[in-house]
Hints:
alpha+beta
Amino acid sequence: MMPLTVADAGEEYVVKRIGGKPEVKQHLENLGFVVGAGVSVINTIAGNVIVKVRESRVAISQEMAQKIMI
Length: 70
């Protein structure tokens, strides 16, 4: 397992665990980051990570991306 921040751009991964406080976990779940979901990093720009999750593109902070384990 590794955090989403070290994932290679363009590669497909599966979410294995979500860390953080309950409100952070809920926010990430609302964005589509749930255990078993497929994710891929599109790009990293100025500390933000652009991720494709469930046919949607989402920009999250690097801090949030650290909490998503793949």
